Amino acid sequence: MAVFAVRTARGPNWDPALGIRQQPGWAEHARFADGLVEAGVVVLGGPVGSDSEEDIALLMVEAAGEAEVRAVFAEDPWTTAGVFRIKSIWPWTIWLDGR
Question: Are 11 and 73 in contact (CB under 8 A)?
Fold first, then answer.
């Protein structure tokens, strides 16, 4: 399995007046994300500080390829609702791993 760094960003339906856990569909998104962790797809993930207000999170994802990453996240309730989107997918060669 290949490893990817996936950055997510605000979608058109992100409400800037609300915190991340108050966004519409948070519970459904969280259940979906927990399922990806249980399935071994998402290894690490969480919100990041950034110079860009649109950035939300950085995830370490294991998948066969970029197309699989996109297919998995296309099913996320936040993607289908337009709350967030994939900003970038980078192949990631892991040299150091203290897990």
Answer: no
**Does residue 98 sit within a domain?**
no
Q: How many domains does the chain have?
A: 1
- Residue for token pair 């967030």: 84
How is residue 90 written in tokens? 């980078």
pLDDT digits (tens, 9 = 90+) for 62-77: 999 999 999 999 999 9
Q: What is the CATH number of the domain that holds 15?
A: 3.30.70.1060
Rounded mean pLDDT of 82-91? Answer: 98
Q: Where are the alpha helices (DSSP H) in the chain?
A: 26-38, 66-74, 77-80
